[in-house]
Structure formats: structure tokens, C-alpha cells
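ok new one. same drill as before - C-alpha cells go in, u give me an amino acid for every spot. 249 of them this time. try not to just spam alanines like last time pls lmao
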């Protein structure tokens, strides 16, 4: 328990040092122009104004809706497909070439098509997030199927279990930790995709807020948006980390 608290305290040292250094170069000694880098007090004032106006909450909710919409859609497609590809070798051989071509394409490259197909708004952003998350989740799921203990599979088959029962009662429980790992990776990608998509093809969300603040020469709001994105990623990473610990324990 002591080591755990000690570790958490040590992890706070560098952020505190960074904030102190940030204050000194911006608002303490005025070394850096506030239009280049706003100070922590200015950022706090901008955050307070955004909270009072309700803009921060609204844009955060909009971004989270897109993140979870794209992530859920990617999971619905990638998890069953990953199980099927891992179980049926012929199906994997059939799809591997196409997947190998599509997987390295950056999700941002799909933005022009998402705008052409879906216009401006929430749906194109969800599509971009889907394209960014679907392949990591698919690869982790596929890897999980291949790593399932062969002895357990053969034992179930020896006892007369059909492929459907083997998949549902042996493979899926084994794959679940890998799926969680894939979702953990997918969340980080989803946040990056969301902000990029909102800057180009959306009229709401944190990315849109950052873009509008930049065009108005409001660096304080820009930094607030960046910090909120980082905090969302930190919280989601912590949640998925807890899920992984519970699964493995």
C-alpha cells in the first residue's frame, strides 16, 4: 500500500515542475509572448468562462458521443469478424490481403470521402473514428483467438462440442482480455481521430472549439481544449486499465 502511494506521489512531481516552469516563463518573467503560449492563470480564466457559458460541457459531451459511437460501431464489426477470421483459416486467407492494404491507411485520409458521403456533422466524425478503431480491435481479437489454448479447444471437440459451442464457451472467454487491450488502444486513436475530424468536418465538439479559438487568436481556450482531451484520455485509459486488472486477476 505504501509503495502504491509513493508511486502516485512521484508521478505528480514532473507535472508540478512543468506547471511552475510554465508559469515562470509566461506570467512570472514574461519571457514568452501570451499569444504564443498563454500562462496557466489565463488558461484557468478561459476554462472558468467556458464552464460558466456551458460551452465546455456541451463540446465535451459532443466529442464523447462521437468517440463512443465510433468505438462501439468498430467493436460490433471488428470483434465478431476477428473471431471468425481467427477460427476459419480459409476466411482469414480470403480477407488478409484487403485488410493488409486498408489497415495502414491513416483514418484522416478518409475525411474527404466522409464529407462527400455524409456531409458535415456528427456522422462523418463517427465514420472517421470507426475507420481508426476497427483495425486495432480486429487485430487484437484475431490474435486472441490464435492464442487460445489448443488443449482446451481439442478437449471440447473431443467431448462432442460443435464449433459454435467451442467459440462461445472456450474461445470468447479466452479472447476477452485481448479485446479489452484492443479497446484500450482504440480509445487513444478515437480521441485523435475525433479532434482531427471535428476540425475539418464538424460544427461541434472539442476539436471544433479549438479550431474556432485558434481563428479568434484565443490561445487560452485552445489550451483548455487540449487539456480536456488529455484528461479524457487519462480517465478512459485508467478505466480500461482497471478492467484489464480485474480480468487478469
Amino acid at each position: 500500500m505504501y509503495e502504491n502511494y509513493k508511486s502516485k506521489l512521484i508521478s505528480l512531481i514532473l507535472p508540478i515542475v512543468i506547471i511552475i516552469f510554465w508559469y515562470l516563463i509566461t506570467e512570472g518573467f514574461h519571457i514568452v509572448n501570451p499569444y504564443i503560449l498563454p500562462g496557466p492563470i489565463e488558461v484557468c480564466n478561459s476554462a472558468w468562462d467556458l464552464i460558466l457559458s456551458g460551452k465546455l460541457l456541451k463540446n465535451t459531451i459532443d466529442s464523447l458521443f462521437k468517440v463512443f459511437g465510433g468505438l462501439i460501431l468498430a467493436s460490433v464489426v471488428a470483434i465478431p469478424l476477428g473471431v471468425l477470421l481467427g477460427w476459419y483459416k480459409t476466411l482469414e486467407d480470403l480477407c488478409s490481403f484487403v485488410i493488409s492494404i486498408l489497415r495502414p491507411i491513416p483514418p484522416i485520409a478518409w475525411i474527404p470521402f466522409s464529407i462527400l458521403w455524409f456531409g458535415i456533422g456528427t456522422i462523418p466524425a463517427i465514420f472517421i473514428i470507426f475507420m481508426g478503431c476497427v483495425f486495432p480491435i480486429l487485430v487484437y481479437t484475431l490474435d486472441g483467438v490464435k492464442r487460445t489454448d489448443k488443449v482446451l479447444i481439442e478437449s471440447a471437440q473431443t467431448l462432442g462440442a460443435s464449433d459454435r459451442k467451442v467459440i462461445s464457451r472456450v474461445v470468447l472467454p479466452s479472447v476477452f482480455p485481448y479485446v479489452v487491450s484492443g479497446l484500450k488502444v482504440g480509445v487513444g486513436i478515437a480521441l485523435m481521430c475525433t479532434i482531427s475530424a471535428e476540425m475539418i468536418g464538424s460544427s461541434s465538439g472539442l476539436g471544433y472549439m479549438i479550431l474556432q479559438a485558434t481563428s479568434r487568436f484565443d490561445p487560452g481556450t485552445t489550451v483548455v481544449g487540449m487539456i480536456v482531451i488529455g484528461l479524457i484520455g487519462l480517465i478512459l485509459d485508467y478505466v480500461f486499465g482497471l478492467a484489464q486488472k480485474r480480468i487478469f486477476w
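The chain has a mean pLDDT of 88. and btw Residues 163-201 form the longest helix (39 residues).
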